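Open question from group meeting: does this chain pack into something compact, or does most of it stay loose? Before anyone orders reagents, we agreed to write out a predicted structure and look at it together. Recording both the input and the output here so the notebook holds the full record.
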Amino acid sequence: MTLQIHIDDGTPPYEQVRAQISEQARAGELPVGYRLPTVRGLAESLGLAANTIAKAYRALEADGVIETRGRNGTFVAASGPAAEREAAAAARAYAERVQRLGLTRDTALDAVRDALRAAYGN
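Structure tokens returned:
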């Protein structure tokens, strides 16, 4: 992850951090599941206050770009096009697996429908 803060820009540093991480995640430069640096670690590396980075992370989390997993850290979340790419990859893996198992398309689709009903409560 590469971030550049331009103090003379006029844009608040937290917003620069938020925008750059958001753009890198959207573009796939930061893949789903990528672990972000700690607030303190990123603050030190950029020469910013920890509260500045914390504010950017809170905004990114509110936007669904990142997710915090407690003491495990902060990660790029699956959302938008990234989530769709991840779902497509999972679908391809599932299709290959059911084909190897010798299941019919109808049986495979029934299994997916059942799993979605269970997940979504319908």
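Observations to bring back to the group:
The chain is about 60% helix and 5% strand.
The first strand starts at residue 66 and ends at 68.
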